[in-house]
Amino acid sequence: MSKASNQDWYKTIWDLDIKNSSWIEDTENQVDFIIKTLQLTGKERILDLACGFGRHCLSFAKRGYQVIGVDITEAYIKDAKMTAEKASLSIEFIHADIRDINFSNEFDVVLNIADGAIGYLENDDENLKIFDKISNALKLGGKHFMDLINAEHIEQYAPF
Fold first, then answer.
1. Quick one: average pLDDT of 115-128?
2. Which CATH code fits 9-157?
3. 92-111: buried (b, 16+ CB within 10 Å) or exposed (e) per residue?
4. What is the three-state SS of 85-123?
5. Domain residues of the chain, as ranges?
6. CB atoms inside a 10 Å sphere around CB 152
C-alpha cells in the first residue's frame, strides 16, 4: 500500500495486501466476542460498514446470519463476492461510500470494526455522517458495535 497525500486518501490507499496482516487471523474470535457481547441469537440481520474484503461478513454468514457488507474499495468488494460465491454463502456486498447508503429501520446490528472508516474522512462533519447512517439503518432497539484502534496501534500497523 502506498501513502496517499490528498484529502480523500482513504478512497485509493487500500488493496488486497491487507489480507496478509497478522490481525486477520483473529477474525473468528472477534465474531465470537461480538455474538457474546451483543447476546445475538443467530436471527439478526447485520450491516457491516467499511467491511473490507468481508472477513466478518463471511464468518457471520457461515453461522447463519443475514449480512450486508459495504465498502468503498472496489477490489475488496470483488474479492468478498468471489469468496462468498465459492463458499456458497448468500451475502450482499455493496461497493459504495458508506455515507451514500440509505437504509431505514432494516438492521438489528450495525458493525464498524477496525474503526469502520470513522476518523478517515475529510473533517468531523463528514465523520459524523456515518453515525446518521448507522442510526437510520438500525431497527428500534438495534445495536451498534464498533471498535477503535488507538494511535500506537496505527503507528505500528497502518499502511500510511
1. 69
2. 3.40.50.150
3. ebebebbeebeeeeebbbbb
4. HHCCCCCEEEECCHHHCCCCCCEEEEEEHHHCCCCCCCC
5. 9-157
6. 8
Grid cell in block for residue 142: 438495534
Going by C-alpha positions, the residue among 38, 28, 101, 39 that lies closest to residue 68 is 101
Q: Please give the Cα distance from 65 to 25 (Å, whole number).
A: 21
Q: Which three cell numbers stand for residue 2?
A: 502506498
Q: How far apart are CA 23 and CA 114, in angstroms?
A: 10
Residue with cell 460498514: 49
Return the higher-pLDDT residue of 51 and 153. Answer: 51
Quote the pTM value. 0.80
DSSP-derived secondary structure letter, 72: S
Digit-coded pLDDT (tens) for 40-86? 999 999 999 999 899 999 999 999 999 999 999 899 999 999 999 99
